[in-house]
Design goal:
alpha/beta, Rossmann fold, 7-stranded parallel sheet, two-stranded parallel sheet, 8 helices, 42% helix, 16% strand, globular, binds NADPH dihydro-nicotinamide-adenine-dinucleotide phosphate, binds 2-hydroxyethylsulfonic acid, oxidoreductase, NAD(P)-dependent oxidoreductase
């Protein structure tokens, strides 16, 4: 049985990935800040696999370290890490950007990903094997109006994905990224700070991806034989050609 740690498992892509991996026999460490969500998910998935939950904010370096060090066997050593926790905060012209939003996006999407990765890596380096899947975004491949700092954070994820693959190559560790386009999750609720009506409009008039679509891709990446590393995958809704070109009906 493979041990996988998923950050951001309390909703969206992380939660859907947890469900699919549980049903396919992966042993899971599920992370997030919302205890009730993770407890419910653990109760649901315990019918299929062993589940351990961890509460921490990826921005808090000490909390990340303590939480990951506390993980008992048999949930470690880790076979795979899915670096998924992240979000956009705000959608504003650069000259109108909110400083707290900028800090949140860079601290969570970039530094948080680094903190978790650093705490997981010793296990993988020691065993000379492991698999890291970074959830990037099309926002890490192109830039769109008002996307500025979110796009910068996901471009950083794209760069770190490549950098990790280069540095960890000598240790036999696979590193790859999945870069989704528009996925209907709580992403826009967070981006628009709980304005559900505005969030809903992001996914209206076309068929966006669903979290389960990305979960299937994550599962596919994990299921490849050990000598195969899927390094970089961009996944769009059929209706989306780029960040700014969406076929609406
Ligand atoms: P959701 O908002 O549904 O999920 C985000 C997850 O990240 C939640 O489980 C949340 O858990 C966790 N998270 C957020 N901030 C923190 C934090 N400070 N510490 C720990 N955990 C945190 O969004 P998605 O599922 O859509 O997003 C998942 C990833 O996919 C993100 O990296 C996002 O950038 C990326 N993505 C999303 C796309 C989309 O259109 N939805 C497209 C491309 C990429 P909790 O609140 O419990 O801490
Ligand atoms: C999420 C997709 O286009 O809202 O990363 O940036 S987008």
């Amino acid at each position: 049985m493979k041990n996988v740690l998923i950050t951001g498992a309390s909703s969206g892509i992380g939660q859907a990935s947890a469900r699919l991996l549980a049903k396919n026999g992966y042993r899971l460490v599920l992370c997030g800040r919302r205890a009730e969500r993770l407890d419910e998910l653990k109760a649901e998935l315990s019918a299929f696999t062993e589940v351990h939950t961890l509460l921490f904010d990826v921005r808090d370096r000490e909390a990340v370290k303590n939480a990951i060090e506390s993980i008992p066997t048999p949930f470690r050593p880790f076979d795979a890490l899915i670096n998924n926790a992240g979000n956009a905060h705000g959608l504003d012209f650069i000259q109108e950007g909110n400083w707290d939003d900028w800090d949140a996006m860079l601290d969570i999407n970039v530094k948080g990903l680094l903190y978790v990765t650093k705490c997981i890596l010793p296990d993988m380096v020691d065993r000379e094997k492991g698999h890291i899947i970074n959830i990037g975004s099309t926002a890490g491949k192109e830039v769109y109006p008002k996307g500025n700092v979110y796009c910068a954070s996901k471009h950083a994820v794209d760069a770190l994905n490549q950098a990790m693959r280069i540095d960890l190559n000598q240790h036999g560790i696979r590193v790859g990224a999945v870069h989704p386009g528009l996925v209907e999750t709580e992403f826009s609720d967070v981006r628009f700070k709980g304005d559900r009506e505005r969030a809903k409009t992001v996914y209206q008039g076309y068929s966006p991806l669903q979290a389960e679509d990305i979960a299937r891709i994550v599962f596919f990446v994990l299921e490849q034989p050990a000598h195969v590393n899927i390094a970089d995958l961009v996944v769009l809704p059929t209706d989306q050609a780029s960040s700014t070109q969406i076929r609406k009906r």
